[in-house]
User: What shape does this take?
Amino acid sequence: MSNRISTDEVAHVARLARLQLTQGELERFTEQLGDVLEHAADIEALDLDGVTPMAHPLPLANVARPDTVRPSLDRDEVLSQAPAVEDGRFKVPKILGEEL
Amino acid sequence: MSHAVDNPSTAIEIAQAVASGATNASTVMDEHLARIEASETEVHAFNLVLADQARQHADALDARIAAGEDVGPLAGVPIALKDNMCTRGIATTCSSRILEGWEPPYNATVADRLANAGAILVGKTNLDEFAMGSSTENSAFGPTKNPHDLSRVPGGSSGGSAAAVAAGYVAASLGSDTGGSIRQPAALCGVVGVKPTYGAVSRYGLIAFASSLDQIGPFTHTVADAALVHEVIGGHDPLDSTSIPQPAPALTEVLDRGVDGLRVGLIDEMMGHGIDGISADVLARTNEAAEALAAAGAKVDRVSIPASIYGLSSYYLVAPAEASSNLSRYDGVRYGLREDGANVVEMNTATRTAGFGDEVKRRIMLGTYALSAGYYDAYYGKAQRLRTLLAQEFNEAYQRFDVLLSPTSPCTAFAFGDKTADPMAMYLNDVCTIPSNLSGDPAMSVPFGIGDDGMPVGVQVLAPATHEPVMFQVAAEVERLAAEAKGAAQ
Assistant: This one.
């Protein structure tokens, strides 16, 4: 955690997150993310080995509703908000690289 | 100049007057819409004002009351919702280009509960994009101004909801609080703001930012109004699997009980002993609140929560990690913006690059990094362990104290542009509020005096999970003591 995050690492993370950065943005974000991570490094000094991680503040687990049929959202109303639809389904550009 | 409202009608006063026939909902609505008309172009509290719909709903409510119907405890009360809460058929943007024009196919549970209680929706309020920020400067639609001084921020991320109440546009509003996004703007705008216990208010229809931290709560002029709104919106909701399976606690009946014999712990770390950067005037007001509570019969003592020093670090790993996952749904497929691309990955990338602002991109990348292979244990895992430690320290403190007290925000409302260049400087605004989100405990901000610059100061009352009644009981006393102190000074 002691090495500052590099522009290569930020570029990699941006690709994973489906974000495109200009060279200027890449340099600025690298600097800013480095500052936040540097601040966050203070918890590195703490001995927390015996402490259980908390994912969630509530002691609830496996909350399920009764398995009964009930109305759902109206399909046409939902699809009316999509950028592109065809035959009652969401439409997207091609997913694989092959020619269709 | 100030656009803050003087001597506003409270939600309770409005509801009683409307229900009793002393006035009607239409008259109340016209008064509030007139204030919006007068200064909203300067304040910009709203992304959307539903003036015609609000007038129609007020007329319909008046007809029901004339027919002898009991329309609920918020009869005719004008309210606003932060624009990250879904309203069926009404644009819900999160102040982001990526959702511009989207009309949700369903209502958030809180929207239904307020409507069923007789409240009337006036509009959707501005926020930092996806609730990420402390000033509303990250809104894609321009910032909200602080009604007390238009050259200053209202706080954030629920800055529009705080400003809408402070300016008298509505009697109550809802915000969401992930790291302080209700309490900090409440403090900066001089109104009451509550972050309830995690799970106490349904989040069905709240657009997710960081799911283990997000909580909906009210902004109001008074503690009693906040108690009433919390009673209306709180309680179990089967549509939210993180909802506590209990009814909302009775709060309005505990407000006049005083603080005699109650034990109040002043958090050392937030009073200049551990966390740097708390302004002297804010510390002074908080100390005065503690002294006043002691004079009113409370047993006030200092308490140490050492892990609170590390709350900010933990939060800025946990919240972005969860945000990076939650915001992966904005892919240009099912709703909102789509930018064209030759294949689906290029379309996703073009859409997200055009649709998200800088702060959202920063947090998505930070979270993606914190969750990535090789860093998960060092960052996210460690941050989650810190949460447990912090919750344990709070629980130990609550063995000795009924409530805890601290400043809400390290400073009063700051000027536009002061902190936008340095994300860390902005993040430090939430240093006193973040610990309650990490632990899941309730906390609320109550106005207490003004700072050296004449701007409002808020003090924070914290309580153990599900102990809202004692938190509101103490907050009501803080409110009375603030009014006394103000009266004595004049």
